[in-house]
Fold:
Amino acid sequence: MTIISLKFLLFLAVTLAIYYIVPGKAQWLVLFAASVAFYIYAGPYYILFAAALITVSYFAARAISGMHEKQRAQSQHLEKAEKKQCAAFWTCKKRKVLAAALTAVVGSLVFLKTYRIIISGLNAFIGLFGTWRFKPASIIFPLGFSFYSFQIVAYLVDVYRGKCEAQKNFVKYALFVLFFPQITEGPIARYDRLAPQLYEPHKADYKNLKSGAQLMLWGFFKKLVIADRLGLFVNSVFADLNKYSGLVLVVTLSFYSIQMYADFSGCIDIVTGAAEMFDITLDKNFNHPYFSKTVPEYWRRWHMSLSGWFKDYVFYPVSASKLSLKLNKFARRRFGGTVSRAVAASFPVIIVWLLTGFWHGAQLNYIVWGLYYGVIIIAGIIFAPYGRKLTAAMHINTDSFLWRLFQMLRTFAICTFARIFFRAKDFSESVLIISKMFGGWPSSVNFFSLGLDRFDFTVVVLSVLLLLSVSILQEKTCVRERIARQNVFVRWAVYYAALFAVIIYGVYGSSNTGTAFIYEKF
Amino acid sequence: MRKKETLKILIFFIVFAVLLLPVSYLLRPDDGHTKATFAGFYAEENNTLDTVFIGSSAAYRYFVPPLLWKNYGVTSYVLATSAQPLDTVPYIIAEAEKTQSPKLYVVEIRRLIMEDYNIKNNLYQESSDRESQLRQVADNMKYSRNRTQLINSTVDGDKTDWLIDIIHNHSNWKYITSKSFGLMLYNKKSSVKSATTIGAWKELQKFETESYAGEQLELENKTKQKLVNLLKFCKGRGLNVLFVSTPYVEDSQYIALENYAAEVIKNYGYGYLNCNYLYDEIGVDFSSDFYNSQHTNILGAEKVTSYIGDYIVKNYAVLSSHGESIAKDWDKAYESWSAIAAAQEQAVKSAVGKNK
Structure:
C-alpha cells in the first residue's frame, strides 16, 4: 500500500476515525495496530526483520538502562576515586551490550545490502576452480529497513549516552520503530522527540486535521504532478542512454534533480501531514535545499534527518576519536592554518560520506557519489579563504541578489552532477554519461519526443514555477497560515484548485506505472 | 472538534463530490460519436422513444433513427458502442428504462457471434480487447447503480479505476476542446438522433448464406451463458425484444453459430431476424452498399433501416402518437441527417461510378 494510493487514504481515514473515538489512553494501541497492519500489508515477511531488530534493541536498551541505574545506585555512597572506577566498570559493560546490539542492527543492514555482492564475488572465485555456484536466496530488502535501522541505532546510542530512558513497554517501543506514516522513507526519528508524542493522548483538532491534509495535498502535487511527470522524461532518456549526449543529458540530469526533490520532499510532506492529523509532529527533513549557497548548506537542508543522524552518531564521535585527535595534532604541527583545518576535517568527513554512500547502496557508484561530496566539502574548506580574497579583489558584492543566485545555481550544478552516480544503474554507466555529456552537442533535438509532449512540458514549467514561488514564500512566511487568513471562498478555491490539479494533472492510474518513490528502494 | 467544524469538513467533501462528477465526465474519452450518442440519449425527453437499438457497430452503422421517423413515424435511438459485449446489454437496457419505456428493443448479436468465433479459432485477446470494449460502455454511462452493477459483473480484479473512472481517464485533459464541455453533463441532444452513417465504399462479394441454412455450430458455454442471461433478463422484465443479425460478409462458421443462437433465442419465445438470409428482400447490393466487409455505408444503412422499420411496424406495436414539439424535434433531426446523408450518398455514388 503506497502512501499515494487511494487505499492508503482510506486506511488513514479509518485509522484516524478509530484513533479519535477510542479513549486517549488507548490511542497509541490504535497506532500500533495500524502500523503493524500497514507493514504486514507492504510485505508479510518484512515484519519478521522488524520484529527481530525491535526485540534485540529493546532488550539491549533495557539492559543498558538497568546498568545506568545500578551504576547510579552504587555510586551514591562512593568516594570520587571509587566513583570513577565504578563508572569505568559499568561503561565497559554498557559498551559491550551496545556493541553487540549495534552489531546486530548494523550487521543486518550491511548483510542485506551486500549479500548479493558477496555471493557473486564468491561465485567468481569458485568459478576459477569448477562449475558449482552458490545460489543467492531471494531476500527482498525489507521496506524502510535503512530508515528504521538507523532510528534504532540512534535510540540505542541515546540510551547509552543517557539522553533518554529506555522504553519499558515492548509494544510502545515497537510503535516507535514501526509508526506507519514514516516507516517507508523516514524522516529518521529520534526517540526523545517522537516517542512521547506517540504515547500521550490527543484530542481531535480541526486545525491539525486541516493543516495535515493541506500538507499531504501539497505532497501529492509535488509527487504526482511534478516528480512523476519529470520521471517520464528522465526514464525515457535513461532507457536508451547511447542515443543521447550533451544538452539532452544536461537537461535530463537537471530534470532528475528537480524530480528527486519533488519526489522525496513530496513523500515527506505526505508523511508529515498524515502524522500531523494524529497531532504528531515529525522532524523536518527538507528546508528548500536548492536555495543553498554552498554544498555543506545544501546538506543541512536536504534529507536533514539523515545528515543530522550522521552528524550526531558518526561525525562527532569520529571527530572526537583518538585517531582523529592525533591526526589533528599532527597536521597542526606539520602544516598549520587552512591545511591543518582541512586535514582535521578530512578524516571524519570522508568517513561520513563513505558511509552515506554505502547507506544508499553497496555499489561503487554510491560510494563514488559519497566520496564526491566528501571531496567537494573538503575542497570547500581549503578554497574558501581564497574565494573570499578573490571576490574582495574583484569587488563583488557578496550580499547582492545576483551573487547569491550564482551561488545557488553553482550548488545546484554541483549536486546535479553528483546525481549522475545516483541515477546510473552502475559506475560504468555513470562514466558513460559523463563522457557523453561532454562529448558533443547534437545540432537539433526534439525534446517533445522524450516522454513528455508539449502539454506535459507546459504543466512541468507551470508547476515548477509554482513550486519555486511557494518555496520562496515559505522562506519568509508560513503559506498555510497565509491561506488560512483568507475568506472561505478564496480558501476553498485554493483547496479545490490544488485537489483537481492533482487529480487531473497527476501522473498515476493504470496506464502509468512509475509511481514508486525513489527513496523507497534505499 | 466542534459540530460546526465537523459540518465544515462534511460540506467540503460534498462540494468536492459535486464538482468531481462533471469533471469526471469531461475527462472521459471522446471518439467523436459514442459519448455524444450516450449524452444524446440521456437528453431525450422522458418516455418519448418507441424503439431502442442496442449492439455494436453492427447496429450503429445500420440503423438510422431519423429515417425511421420519416418513413414510419417511429422514434428510435441507437445505444450502441464499438464491439459492445453482450453481457453489458442488460445494464444498458436497465439504464435506458430509467428514462424511457420503449415498446421494443432491437438487439444486434454479431458481437456475440464474433466473440464465440474468436474463442473457437484462438483469436480472442481477452485482456486487451475486452477492457476497451467494456470501457466504451461503462465510461459513457452516467454514475448510477446500473453502471456499478455492470462493472461488478463484468470486470475482474481491481475495479477502483472503473468505478471512479477519472483515475483511468484523467490524462485526457490534453484532448479537451471547447466541444468537450458541451457533453460534460450528458445533457446535449444528438442533432441526428444517434445516426452514424458513413459515406465510404468498398466492393465486396456476397457470401451464399442459404447453402448453410441447415447447419448449426454450438456456442461455447461462456458465450451461450451471456445470451441466456440476457434472455432471462428480458423475460424477467417482460420486455419486447427483437434479436437481429445485420448483413455483412458471412462465413460458414458465422452462419452456423447464428443458426444455433436463433434456436436459443426462439426457445425463450423471442423473435430473431437474420438479415443475412434476406439480402434480396432488403435489396442489399454487395457491390455498392458496404464500406468494409463488416459494415454498410449510407446506401446499405438506408436499406436495412427501411426493411427493419417495415418489419417492426408490422410485427410489433411500436407506433405511438407524439406531441407537436417531439415531432418538430424529430423533423429537425431528419433534416440535419438528410443533409449529411445527401453528401455521403453522393460520395459513395461517385466512388462506385469512378470504379466502373
Chain A touches chain B at residues 6, 20, 203-206, 209, 453, 455, 492, 495-496, 499-500, 503-512 (CB under 8 Å). Residues 80-126 of chain A form the longest helix (47 residues). The CA atoms of residues 75 and 83 of chain A lie 5 Å apart. The mean pLDDT of chain A is 90.
